[in-house]
Backbone:
């Protein structure tokens, strides 16, 4: 009954995300849903069926001039822009983002990236994207966390979309203060000149899909996008896991 109510891309993700664990290992290290914490079977996606159904899809990928595209009007000449999920404080999406960013749950980042990639692969607006580029972390934060959450999303998206991703196309040149309590103008100032191109030749001639975890004011994506658009003969689109504006 549950399976019939899940969108096709979700069912495909569930089928493909098997984890080879033995029964004894599952008893010692139970596999828990990243959304609600219930026990999951040993060979299962990192979300239970109920949490899969409860994901608040935006479906922005299916139409032009959606709220994320409008967010960048007059700021960046993007070909297309979208976000996979709606973000609200205290919601399932916030819990999943905390799992990815603060609890070391890489699996859920890759899994959600794969679901988002399956959606974009079916969209005319994103069919010409040829290179995935994640928003980078500053080196000290990357060392502390051990991974870049946007790169995890790109890993899953790359598998689903059949295009490669360049993990170090951009460099964050300085640490930034947290953006959480800043207004739009303060966030924009905080991000100016923070990003530098690293592998310019590898990006020339590509339709770049810039990937981030959350769109809020868009200041970080704007700063990254301006750097990327200085590459010769490239176009750019934007995809984020969640939309919080």
Residues:
């Amino acid at each position: 009954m549950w399976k019939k109510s899940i969108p096709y891309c979700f069912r495909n993700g569930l089928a493909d995300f098997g984890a080879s664990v033995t029964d004894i290992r599952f008893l010692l290290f139970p596999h828990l849903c990243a959304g609600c914490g219930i026990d999951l079977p040993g060979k299962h996606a990192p979300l239970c069926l109920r949490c899969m159904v409860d994901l608040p899809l935006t479906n922005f990928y299916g139409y032009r001039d959606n709220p994320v595209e409008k967010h960048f009007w007059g700021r960046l000449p993007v070909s297309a822009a979208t976000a996979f999920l709606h973000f609200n404080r205290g919601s399932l999406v916030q819990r999943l983002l905390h799992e990815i960013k603060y609890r070391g749950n890489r699996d859920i980042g890759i899994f959600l990236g794969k679901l988002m990639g399956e959606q974009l692969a079916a969209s005319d607006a994103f069919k010409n994207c040829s290179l995935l580029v994640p928003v980078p972390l500053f080196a000290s934060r990357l060392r502390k966390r051990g991974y870049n959450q946007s790169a995890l999303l790109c890993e899953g998206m790359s598998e689903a979309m059949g295009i490669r991703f360049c993990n170090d196309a951009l460099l964050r040149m300085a640490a930034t203060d947290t953006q959480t309590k800043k207004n739009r103008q303060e966030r924009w100032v905080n991000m100016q000149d923070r990003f530098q191109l690293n592998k310019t030749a590898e990006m020339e001639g590509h339709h770049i899909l810039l990937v981030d975890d959350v769109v809020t004011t868009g200041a970080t994506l704007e700063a990254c996008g301006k750097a990327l658009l200085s590459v010769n003969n490239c176009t750019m689109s934007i995809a984020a896991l969640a939309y919080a504006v």
